[in-house]
Amino acid sequence: MKLQFNKSVTAVTMQNRIAFAVWTPQAPLRRSILVSTLLLSCIASVSEASGPQVREIEFAGSSWNVRSRTGGPGGGKNQWSDSPQSVWVDSIGRLHLKLRQEDGIWKSAEVSTVAVSTYGEHQFYVDGPIGDLYRNDRLGLFLFANDGSEMDIEFAKWDGPTLCQNASFALHPVAGGNGDPCVATNTYEPFNFWGDEALTRHSILWRPDAVSFRSETFQQNESSTGWRSMHERVFPAKSRPMPHPDQNLRVHINLWLDVKTLWSPKNAREVEIVIVDVVLPASASLAMKQ
After folding, report:
1. Is residue 213 domain-shared with residue 89, that is, in the same domain?
2. How many independent structural domains does the chain possess?
3. Which of 284, 118, 142, 116 is nearest to 206 (CA)?
4. Which residues form the domain of 268?
5. In this structure, are 44 and 61 located in the same domain?
6. pLDDT in tens, 209-265
7. Cα–chain-centroid distance for residue 29?
8. Is 205 helix (H, G, I), strand (E, B) or coil?
9. DSSP for 218-249?
10. What DSSP state is assigned to residue 169?
11. Dihedral of alpha carbons 272, 82, 144, 250, sign
12. Most-buried pick from 45, 69, 152, 170 (CB within 10 A)?
């Protein structure tokens, strides 16, 4: 704030707003008006500086922020939509994420918990044949603070020397493999996730000494009913230091595009994924409700 004094007239300038008042002992009312004008100016300035409000939704007992087109790191050149047509919770409490066009531009979708998470098991229940995503569609279920503190389950047909596996577990930053998404390393595990089962469960068990990943399908037939493990992998702390809760990792779910291959989804059609539920560690869930 810059103050300019000129004898009995005071001009207060604040971010292109100017309030004038005659400063005399006989003018307490005008001084009051000046103070009120300044307060209102400050409030308006703070509101403008903060920019657009982040959309927030309630899902699975927690509050989640919806990523906007300019919000948050990662995702390459993707543009993000916080429209209710891209991210919404239906009448029975399921979360929907949708790749769709807005004004001719393909937009991706992402949500992240408002509060940070902690050690424990994080489970994601997904409805739909996620193994059938096309080569440039990406579904991520992960904990993230920055590129050096991330634990990730991703469904994507990454381009390597050949078109390889369609899913992976990763403890970032990934070490070794020369950047080849088809090669397993001490912190990266590609695998094939097959099956047309509608309901699948994907888990990240975060501990001080290791992180364990598991993907399962729910099968119900004449011989058995229950969860069947499709793939598992444990990365011990010796692979690389484990993320710590003090790093403020949040739970993220996103559906996005690999712009290095094709900009639009398969056959230029919209893609929708349904998240039935997310189960978080008890202490993390309690923190999110406070």
Report:
1. yes
2. 2
3. 118
4. 56-289
5. no
6. 999 999 999 988 888 889 999 999 999 998 788 999 999 999 999 999 876 654 566
7. 51
8. strand
9. EEESSS-EEEEEEEEEEEETTTSPPP-GGG--
10. E
11. negative
12. 170
